[in-house]
Predict the structure.
Amino acid sequence: MIAVVAALIVRENRLLIARRPEGKHMAGKWEFPGGKIERGETPEQALERELKEELGVKTETGRIYHAIAHSYPEKDVLLMFYRSRLIEGEPEAIEEAELKWITESELRLYPWAEADAPLIDLIEREGFGAIFDN
């Protein structure tokens, strides 16, 4: 099983999402920014490294919000979603095809990566405020 971390970043009542680039698994699908945990890293360290590499920002990782185990035909993933806060920089699509800041009402407008879909249901039920209220 591959351990993956993802950031839930809310700013001005909008949530940051990323579209996967061509040539990668699930190309064109939307997800929350993050990546794989490398050997010797904590999930928090991995997430902060990935966000710096992929978005060019410095972040602070908070508590875990939710975790999902998902099986794709070619691999199994454990996806851990963390509350994250921007500390420095403006997110740029360095290793992502595109970034968007979306509102709660826009959650269903995007084709999500399969592993992220259950989180969309949860966020819809709880609202963006729950990401940081817990």
Remarks:
- The mean pLDDT is 93.
- Residues 43-55 form the longest helix (13 residues).
